[in-house]
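Progress note, project year one: complex with zinc ion.
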Amino acid sequence: MPSKHLSPDLLASIAATDAVDPAHAAGCDACRADLDAMRRLVAGLRVLPDPPARRSPSRCSGSTTPISRSGLAPCSSTPAAQVAPG
Ligand SMILES: [Zn+2]
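Model obtained:
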């Protein structure tokens, strides 16, 4: 069946999974070129470093907090006057 070229989806899945070239690609320069380009793209994506892990900003990171100048403790999670006297 020499009619249809490989679809971009198929090319992508072949490139992503390191599958063997389909028979059509062996006889079709255009599809082989597409597959080659797709493989290069996939390889390029693989060498990219992982994105930095998203860290939630911690409120009590301690040392340098601009708020603490005005007397507000940045980490005042312990209420002082909550204990009922007696
Ligand atoms: Zn083709």
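Helices lie at 8-17, 23-27, 29-46.
Residues 8-46 form one domain.
No further modelling is planned for this target in the current period.
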